[in-house]
Design a protein that fits this description.
This protein is an alpha+beta fold. The chain has two domains: about 10-45, no CATH class; about 65-165, PAS domain (Beta-Lactamase, 2-Layer Sandwich), CATH 3.30.450. About 35% of the residues lie in helices and about 25% in strands. It contains seven helices and five strands; from the N terminus they run ααααββαααβββ. It has helices at about 10-15, 20-30, 35-45, 60-65, 85-90, 95-100, 115-125; strands at about 70-75, 80, 130-135, 145-155, 155-165. A five-stranded antiparallel β-sheet has the order 2-1-5-4-3, with helices on both faces. Helix 3 crosses helix 4. The longest helix has 12 residues, at about 20-30. The radius of gyration is 17 Å and the shape is elongated.
């Protein structure tokens, strides 16, 4: 139902037998690594059913325009990434455990440490950041470029990344 119609998440939740839309939301996100609404918007946008004139900084717009996304935590003054599945892991070559055990700054290429440090400080201060270009060092030693955004919604931080070309 979510992938083919604009029916509300609450109605889908009830149709699936959930007594609580909140529990449905948590169960769906745990299984799919994306919220029901983001999933619905993504599926409908692929069919041309969602207008493209969304605010660029909305979670939906960022999610739809990004190659990778997930959540992140601020632990002891460091950013740690969660989510996005195997595509992100394959892109930079690290497994989930390695990504969760190391702060984001550890993946930044040396030439972009100043930009990344400033970006991280903005996030730690509670500020959203949009379209920051940084290069990451992959496990293989190769460098890949991303355009990075981070947005808070309530107590949760979401990150988004688009692949970028890196000058060789």
């Amino acid at each position: 139902m979510l992938s083919a119609t604009k029916v509300s998440v609450k109605k889908v939740s009830a149709a699936c037998g959930f007594e609580s839309v909140h529990y449905f939301h948590r169960a769906f996100k745990k299984r799919m690594n994306i919220t029901p609404k983001h999933f619905q918007n993504h599926m409908l946008s692929m069919k041309g059913s969602i207008p493209s004139q969304e605010k660029n900084s909305s979670l939906d717009a960022l999610s739809l325009s990004s190659d990778f996304s997930g959540t992140m935590e601020i632990l002891n003054g460091e950013l740690v990434f969660h989510g996005s599945g195997t595509a992100w892991n394959n892109f930079i070559g690290y497994d989930v455990k390695e990504l969760r055990d190391k702060p984001f700054i550890n993946f930044i290429s040396p030439e972009d440490l100043d930009v990344a440090t400033e970006t991280i400080n903005h996030i730690i201060q509670g500020n959203n950041v949009f379209d920051v270009d940084v290069s990451l060092t992959c496990k293989s030693g190769d460098t890949v470029g991303i355009q990075f955004s981070a947005v808070s919604k309530g107590d949760t931080w979401f990150w988004f990344a688009k692949k970028q070309l890196v000058d060789a």
